[in-house]
Amino acid sequence: MAERWIIHADLDAFFANAEVLRRPELRGRPVVVGGDPDGRGVVSSATYEARARGVRSAMPVAHARRLCPDAVFLRGDFAHYGELSRRFRAILRDLSPTVEVASIDEAYLDATGLAREPGPPTAVVETIKARLRAEVGLTASLGVAPNKTLAKIASDLRKPDVVVLVGQGGGAAFLAPLPVGRLAGVGPKARARLAALGIRRIGELAAAPPVLLREVFGERGPALALRARGIDDRPLEPDTPAKSRGHERTFARDIGDLTALRRALRDLSERTAAELRRGGLGGRIVALKLRDSDFRTIGRQRACAARPTTPGRSSPPPRRCCARRWPRRAPPGSGGASACSACGSVASARWPASSTSSTPPRCATSASTARSTSSTRASAPAR
Ligand SMILES: [Mg+2]
């Protein structure tokens, strides 16, 4: 059987470099793409010149400006990024029939059998890099490995503009010295629990008794143990439709006013529902996300018995369930804008509106709205 080779391609500092591409005068300068530096927006992308000064994705833009006051701050142009992303994907699809798009700037390519000789698909890798430069004007970091887990970790290891190769059978040794957080699915909470057990590196995770992993990760334990050993048989999923739709916004100022919060959530819910209706989609799970001024993010979700976007029906109110699970105390400084009220607002808005013709009330203006990023999202659309 042919050796399996997966390439994970990840465009370097995509939004920021996309801006530099059309404004060559920015080359070599720190550039930050994100929200308003005078507001509460977060950094979406930053050039390596800005990263060298400590700027990171998802950091408040205001903080980025303190770290790097001479950076050029830009708001982002998604039409431009979308077009570059389309060209990036087209190159990959030219080279392999099996491409899985992971995000606007990341994709997996199945290069199994594409090389004339046994061994890594070097020619494919070189073609990707050369065509990206020539046809898109951007660089990418590539991970080349026998499976998705390894390829993804490899591409992220020494950015920017590198190729990191993991040989056949070399997965476990490649992963062993890396911190456990490199593995997808090992978030801050799991990291803390593992650290308490003395497990900090992926090699230690790979050697941990299965019982212990089941305790920390539940059902996901066995799969994660395999990944930690470099084993991952998941196939690529070309053209996977989006699994969820949602909207979110970051408010310019804090609000402690529940009525304003309800209005804002209703607006987000209406927009999400309208988008699903336009696409002829239904959702089963309603998820809410709330972020407070300290950038703590709280998420809650609930499965609904009925498809909540069906016109003429209102969703079962998620209020009770979410209110029960949401922290009772409001986050410090949030003015009592606790999230169970937020859930209530969704319920009271009969998420989504039962009529396609309803005009979504506009969200409260920035003068009266909240600090938080709040969002609603409907998952697992079913046609
Ligand atoms: Mg990227």
Question: How many β-strand runs?
Answer: 12
Q: Give the class from helix and strand content and strand pairing.
A: alpha+beta
- Per DSSP, the total helix count is 14
Distance between the termini: 38 Å
Commentary on this structure:
The chain has 14 helices and 12 strands. The protein is α+β, with helices and mostly antiparallel strands and 383 residues long. Among the domains are: 14-78, 3-Layer(aba) Sandwich (MutS, DNA mismatch repair protein, domain I); 173-228, Orthogonal Bundle (DNA polymerase, domain 1); 244-379, 2-Layer Sandwich (Dna Ligase, domain 1), CATH 3.30.1490. Strands 5-6-1-7-8 form a 5-stranded mixed sheet. Strands 9-12-10-11 form a 4-stranded antiparallel sheet, covered by helices on one side. The structure holds magnesium ion (MG). Magnesium ion binds at residues 10-11, 14, 105-106.
Question: Topology, pairings included?
Answer:
Blueprint: E1 6-11, H1 14-22, E2 31-34, E3 43-46, H2 48-51, H3 61-67, E4 72-74, H4 78-95, E5 99-103, E6 106-110, H5 122-136, E7 140-145, H6 148-155, E8 163-165, H7 171-175, H8 188-196, H9 202-207, H10 210-217, H11 221-228, E9 244-250, H12 258-278, E10 285-291, E11 297-303, H13 319-325, H14 339-348, E12 373-379
Parallel strand pairs: 2-4, 7-8
Antiparallel strand pairs: 1-6, 1-7, 2-3, 5-6, 9-12, 10-11, 10-12
The protein binds magnesium ion (MG).
